[in-house]
Write a sequence for this structure.
């Protein structure tokens, strides 16, 4: 947006353009959209976002985002505190909860080990996980993504946990539901055969 | 985002989801992104957007967005005030200015006539345009989009202007630069032949 545009409009568009996945063209469209909304709506938009940023922090137990001291999962007496599912990010907790089927608690690492990006064990929440394991824990499920970084992180953490005598498991690899053998990649197919189950 | 997510986080995502072209999935991603940014950056994001909404209004002459009384184009003594280019929206002014080649001034309608959507002449800024034409104007260029609504609006306004003895023109139809005859639609090709120019 060049000098023929009003400066506040250009600034608003530049702010939108900082968001991930939003280019300058979409950012301009969003800025124009905002100008056409009632002031109260724009005030609500900005205040809710600022409130979220200011009130949300990490749960002191599982490190997931929460606006209370303990998150709603850690604070739920019906959840099995002896089974901890380790994930990369809060969005993974959302995905697993949405899917259902898990009644334990989580631990959010807020990142994965990545020598390429210079992210080491002290840059993610591994120490906080190890501290939790001094309590009464039966199983730790490594639920990081099936990528190079996800695998590296899962095996690094599992090597740290095993000496404690706690069971460490990994999410199953295989064909995604509703997928087709024809389009599955080689690694997925190999793993699906290796990990085949008796019917 | 369900009840296992912190309420302020859900609210922030819902606000993002109200933006055009942003679904719930992207909205969640943006909300998470915001939580990972420094508070000052989030404050700047929200304040710039709110500032734009509160300080930007329509230029009293051309109806384009501006934060001053008159927009920078209407206030520029080098622009030819006798040639008015009529467009649907502020983003069209941006497009034409970016392209260059026009040294007149604009008039932003903030919409197009659309019987289907119940948008009549009083719902867009036609009266403001007619008021400008009582001054010294040589030519009005109808630069609405080449769509049904754009055509309807252009011909409606031109019928109102012609009795005033002011020249009314329309943007040229034809093949877009760099395009291929093979993929051009029929209407575009027909118009390109009709409006052929001597070499």
């Amino acid at each position: 947006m060049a000098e023929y545009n009003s400066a506040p409009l250009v600034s608003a568009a530049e702010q939108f353009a900082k968001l991930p996945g939003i280019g300058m063209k979409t950012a301009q469209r969003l800025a124009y959209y905002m100008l056409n909304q009632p002031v109260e709506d724009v005030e609500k938009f900005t205040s809710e976002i600022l409130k979220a940023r200011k009130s949300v922090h990490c749960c002191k137990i599982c490190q997931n985002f929460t606006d209370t001291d303990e998150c709603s999962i850690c604070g739920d007496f019906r959840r099995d505190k002896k089974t901890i599912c380790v994930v990369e990010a809060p969005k993974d907790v959302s995905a697993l909860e949405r899917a259902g089927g898990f009644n334990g608690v989580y631990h959010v690492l807020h990142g994965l080990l990545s020598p390429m990006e210079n992210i080491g064990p002290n840059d993610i929440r591994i120490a906080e996980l190890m501290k939790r394991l001094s309590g009464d824990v039966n199983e730790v499920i490594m639920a990081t993504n099936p990528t190079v970084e996800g695998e590296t992180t899962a095996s690094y953490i599992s090597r740290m946990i095993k000496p404690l005598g706690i069971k460490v498991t990994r999410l199953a690899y295989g064909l995604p539901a509703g997928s087709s053998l024809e389009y599955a990649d080689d690694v997925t197919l190999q793993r699906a055969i290796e990990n085949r189950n008796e019917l």
